[in-house]
Design a protein that fits this description.
alpha+beta; two-stranded antiparallel sheet; 6 helices; elongated
Length: 192
């Protein structure tokens, strides 16, 4: 089934119309029109270019409606993606979160991912890191990125992956200060 294109009054092109969804048309590259207007393939309305995302053929409103109606599918796909490679998911989220805070790294994501894949235990206490705890944040054995010395540059040798409990205890101090504080606590409680 074909009908006349709505992109402009001078356009004589015929477009294919879906039999199942008669308001939806398939343009095959004939989406831009004269006067900077474009037709949405879902609602078939002729709208300004501001109503579309860069490479989308549906308008922003139709995309929002579609995503709202299918949000359970997106949630399931997101969980499947996260469970496929937990270490990569943790590394990606952590790397982007720290960069978003304005922390500049002198290494690329692939170097950080290889460090995360090599790390199985906490650098400070030796506990086994449980990567799937990153789905439920705040667990004690979930991994955390730690900068060893904040006065030096953030290269791959100045970071370590430690458990969440050690990260909370270490706070903003250096590793040597944290170890000294642990010795002081042990010495104080083992006196008597």
């Amino acid at each position: 089934m074909y009908k006349k294109c709505k992109c402009s009054s001078s356009c004589k092109r015929l477009v294919k119309v879906s039999a199942k969804y008669p308001r939806r048309t398939f343009f095959r590259g004939h989406r831009l029109s004269i006067n900077g207007r474009r037709s949405c393939y879902m609602c078939n309305n002729l709208l300004s270019l501001d109503s579309f995302h860069k490479k989308a053929s549906a308008c922003k409103e139709c995309i929002k409606k579609y995503q709202r109606a299918n949000r359970h599918i997106y949630a399931q796909a997101n969980i499947k993606y996260r469970l496929k490679d937990l270490v990569r998911h943790w590394a990606k989220c952590t790397f982007n979160r720290h960069r978003g805070k304005g922390i500049k790294f002198l290494f690329c994501f692939d170097d950080f991912l290889s460090l995360a894949r090599k790390t199985h235990n906490c650098f400070l206490c030796g506990k086994k890191l449980i990567w799937n705890n990153t789905l439920i944040s705040g667990k004690l054995n979930s991994p955390s990125l730690d900068i060893i010395n904040r006065t030096q540059k953030n290269n791959i040798k100045n970071i370590q992956i430690i458990c969440n409990q050690c990260n909370l205890g270490k706070s903003t101090g250096t590793t040597e200060e944290f170890i000294q504080n642990c010795h002081n606590v042990v010495a104080r409680h083992c006196r008597g």
